[in-house]
Specification:
This protein is of the alpha+beta class and 66 residues long. The termini are far apart. The longest helix has 15 residues, at 51-65. It has three helices and three strands. It has a single domain (12-65), classed as Multidrug-efflux Transporter Regulator, Chain: A, Domain 2. It has helices spanning 15-22, 26-35, 51-65; strands at 12-13, 41-43, 46-50. It has a three-stranded antiparallel sheet with strand order 1-3-2.
Length: 66
């Protein structure tokens, strides 16, 4: 290793981070989850969203806007 710390990007994010990635508030994000626009999973007591799911949602929004 060259002394630099490796950057690790988690495959899953919490709702707060997913909402920030999309650019909406937490209440709106939970509404998107409830409506099925974004899918999530439970890991123990924590709700987790696949980073790829958030990215796919953003791509769908871009396609709709085009």
């Amino acid at each position: 290793m060259n002394g630099e710390a490796q950057k690790f990007e988690s495959a899953f994010v919490r709702p707060e981070e997913a909402a920030a990635m999309i650019g909406v508030g937490l209440t709106k994000f939970y509404s998107l989850l409830k409506d099925g626009a974004v899918k999530s999973s439970k890991l123990g007591h924590s709700r987790m969203i696949a980073r790829t799911e958030v990215e796919a949602f953003i791509e769908r929004l871009k396609a709709e806007a085009a």
